[in-house]
Amino acid sequence: MPKETVWFEFKVNNDNPYEIGEYISALSNSATLAGKSNAYLIWGINNETHDIVGTDFKPSEAKVRNEELESWLLRLLAPRIFFRFYEILFNHKNIVILELEKAFGKPVQFKGSEYIRIGSYKKLLKDFPEIERELWRAFDQTSYEEKIAKDHLTESEVLNFIDYPAYFELLKMPLPEGRKRIIEKLSKEGLIVQNSAAGWDITNLGAILFAKKLSDFKLLKRKNVRVIQYKGNSRIETIREQEGGKGYASGFEGLIGFINNLLPRNEVIGKALRQDLPMYPELAVRELVANALIHQDFSIRGTGLMLEIFSNRMEITNPGQPLVNSERFIDTPPKSRNEELASFMRRIGVCEERGSGFDKVVSETEFYQLPAPIIEVTKEHTKVILLAHIDFKEMSKEDKRRACYLHTCLKYVNREFMTNMSLRQRFGLNDKDVSVASRIIKDATEHGLIKLLESDTNQRYYKYIPFWA
Question: Are strands 38-43 and 8-11 parallel, antiparallel or unpaired?
Fold first, then answer.
């Protein structure tokens, strides 16, 4: 390059940690505007002559108040983008390269401030509102799936990293003859793109769906699915732990099979169940795992989907808050965080985009007379809990109230109404238990979860709808 650009900067010995942090913010944001997947800060190069002069800066030894530089920088960045220092000896001179990824979703901040490059100068983004608007437009135009997971690959290297036979098998297409045609098909699908300099780049979409090993992709290593089986009801003793390694599309059926083999089995739990069935309906497990994979927030680093199996419950946790209110999972039209990923998973039959996935989960738990699923939302995660069968008399008031609400929602989206009789059927109660069902309905009504639609002379025929209807 004849001179510095907005996405790379030359330094010699400048090791000021605050200035490095500001440059990370500025270069990352500018790389997004320039359409680059990465940005670079390079020490040991003369800015004017581009001569290799070497540097005294050693990031592996640098500390800020007894905290390692890399850890300190990561703590003060928001969001925490991926970056890495490389220390290189070239012609007996030390060179340091800081490689960092472009900003995604929102501008990168350092210590609460956002920076940008104007030519070869670092400036506060807030002082350039037109550039800030342009940056936000760039975020809207570039999806996570389009970002590059691995770049500058030959055709052979692409096929070494991507499980291309699985792609053709899942789409029920014959495997083309010749490497060129395979590459062409993967390119048309958006799984790979041609690199402007040389070779091919694998997109995040290609890696997430069809990686032979997700650990081969530095930014996706933590996106493997962890399955942990515990002894008893706590996390004190682990029986088995396994981390899935394949892409989500090529590894989905194997993942579901592995999970179902770990699940406890019951001989008989209620009227609807036959002997030797899994504790949790396979369809419900399949839908919840698929939804967690598809709707996770990939921008949250250091965490991935985790499935934990206890003796009395199963917890499925994925990064990110839901895009819709968790109380409205049943009725809200579908809204995908990762649209291209969801679209492809629908094409191969893993999921639906009609928003009926959670309906099926609730329907299955009702059919097998299990407690209603629990949804918990934290600052960075969404957790869905499937509970093992317990007798009605052992259910808490909260369990009964939650089941009543979800039963009412399910009835409503099916153009029906919840009644005393339908609730008794949901819990497997007898006709003589009218008053028991009435108490549950009253409790759910008082908590503002359901409301009376119309009344009759006999209370057992009252019709109820969700509070939002």
Answer: parallel
What is the rounded CA–CA span in Å between residue 41 and residue 30? 13
Q: According to the model, what pLDDT value does residue 355 have?
A: 47
- 105 burial class (0-12, 13-18, 19+ CB within 10 angstroms)? middle
Strands 306-309 and 226-230: parallel
Whether residue 399 sits in one domain with residue 375: no
CA distance 443 to 437: 10
131 and 154 belong to one structural domain:
no
Residue 3 located in a structural domain:
no
User: Which amino acid, residue 273?
Assistant: L
Compute and round to an integer the Cα radius of gyration of the chain: 27
Is 419 a domain residue?
yes
Q: Rounded distance, CA 23 to CA 9, Å?
A: 8
Task: Note the pTM of the prediction, 2 decimals.
Answer: 0.74
> Amino acid letter at 233?
N
pLDDT digits (tens, 9 = 90+) for 126-162: 999 999 999 988 877 667 888 888 888 999 999 999 9
Q: Tell whether 265 and 379 lie within a shared domain.
A: yes
Same domain, 178 and 202: yes
- Enclosing domain of residue 190: 146-214
Q: Do 247 and 316 reside in the same domain of the chain?
A: yes
Q: Are residues 418 and 359 in the same domain?
A: no
316 within 8 A of 283, measured Cβ to Cβ:
no
Does residue 38 contact residue 102 with C-beta atoms inside 8 Å?
yes
* Lowest-confidence region among 10-14, 52-56, 137-141, 374-378: 137-141
Secondary structure element (H or E) that encloses residue 34, with its range: helix 17-34
Does 244 share its domain with 383? yes
| % residues pLDDT > 70 (the chain) | 94
What is the domain count for the chain?
Answer: 4
Pairing of strands 148-153, 200-203: antiparallel
Distance of CA 144 to the CA centre of its chain: 11
Could you tell me if 377 and 230 lie in one domain? yes
**Cβ atoms 260, 285 nearer than 8 A:** yes
Mean pLDDT of the chain: 89
Nearest CA to 246 among 194, 192, 207, 299? 207
